[in-house]
Amino acid sequence: MALQLWSTLKEAIVVYTGLSPTTFFTVLAILFALYYIVTSLFGSNDTHQRHGTSRDFDAQMEPLKPPVQIGEVTEEELKEYDGNNPEKPLLMAIKGQIYDVSQSRMFYGPGGPYALFAGKDASRALAKMSFEEKDLTGDISGLGPFELEALQDWEYKFMGKYVKVGTIKTTVPVTEPESTGEPSESTSRDVDASNPNENNHEAEASKPHENTPSETETAAVKSDETPSNVDADKE
Ligand code: HEM
C-alpha cells in the first residue's frame, strides 16, 4: 500500500514538475533552508528570535513607565534598580545624583554594553573611562583635572538626557578636591532630603548655578539649560 502510494507520488512529481523525484526533493530542501535563513536574518517571526531572550524582548516592548522620584536611598538599595527586576526602573547615579535611565535599556539593561553601571554610582568609572570593578564607585577622590572634567561632561549629558529621581545617602566623599582647594575628607556626608543639592554647594562652587536643577524638573526642561549654555558660561 505504502509502496503503491510512493510510486504514484513519484509519477505525479515527474508529470507535474518535469523533475526527477530526487531533484524535486533536493530543490524542496534548498527552498526550506533558504526560508529559514532569511526569516532568522530579518527577525520577522517569533520562533527564531526569541529563544532565551523572550524576557528582555518583552521588557523592551513594554511602554516606558514615567520616572518616579525615589528620594534618598543607600548604595545598597540602589543596586535593586540594575534592570534585573523588570518591575523596577533602571537607575544609575553620577556624583550622588540618581537618574532614571530606563529609556536606554539597550545600554544599561542586562546584557547591554554598560550594564555594569546600572544600579550604581558610576562616577569614578566614567571619569576614568574605565570598566574595572574597582572603579565602579561614587568615590571620586584623587582624580586628576582631566578626569574631573570628563566626569563633569558626563554629568551634563545625564542632566540633559535623563530625569533625576533621587540622591544617594552615602559615607563616600563626593566632593571635588579641586573646587574646595582642600584635600578630600572621608567624613560622612548625608544628603539633606529636603534640599538634595545643598551638600554639593562647595563641590559645585565652580559650576554655574543653573546646573543644579531641582527634583521636579523634567529632562526636557533640563536640556534647555545644559550642557550648551553651561559650556558657554565656562568659556
Ligand atoms: C571603544 C570604546 C568605546 C566606543 C566605541 C563607545 C561607543 C559608544 C556609543 C556608540 C554610544 C552610543 C552613543 C549615543 O547614541 O548616545 C556610547 C554610549 C555610552 N558610552 Fe561608550 N564607547 C566606548 C567606550 C566607553 C567607555 C570606556 C565608557 C565608560 C567607562 C563608555 C560609556 C558610555 C556610556 C555611559 C554611554 C551611554 C550614554 C547615555 O546614556 O546616553 N563608553 N558609547
Automatic annotation (TrEMBL):
Entry keyword set: Cell membrane, Lipid-binding, Membrane, Steroid-binding, Transmembrane, Transmembrane helix
Gene Ontology MF annotations: steroid binding
Listed transmembrane segments: 12-38
Listed Basic and acidic residues bias regions: 199-212
Region (Disordered): 174-235
InterPro entries: Cyt_B5-like_heme/steroid-bd (IPR001199), Cyt_B5-like_heme/steroid_sf (IPR036400), MAPR/NEUFC/NENF-like (IPR050577)
Residue span(s) of domain Cytochrome b5 heme-binding: 73-169
GO CC annotation: endoplasmic reticulum; plasma membrane
Gene3D superfamilies: Cytochrome b5-like heme/steroid binding domain (3.10.120.10)
Compartment list: Cell membrane
Bias type Low complexity, positions: 174-186
Record family assignment: Belongs to the cytochrome b5 family. MAPR subfamily.
Protein name according to UniProt: Membrane steroid-binding protein 1-like
Organism expressing this protein natively: Cicer arietinum
Biological classification of the source: Eukaryota, Viridiplantae, Streptophyta, Embryophyta, Tracheophyta
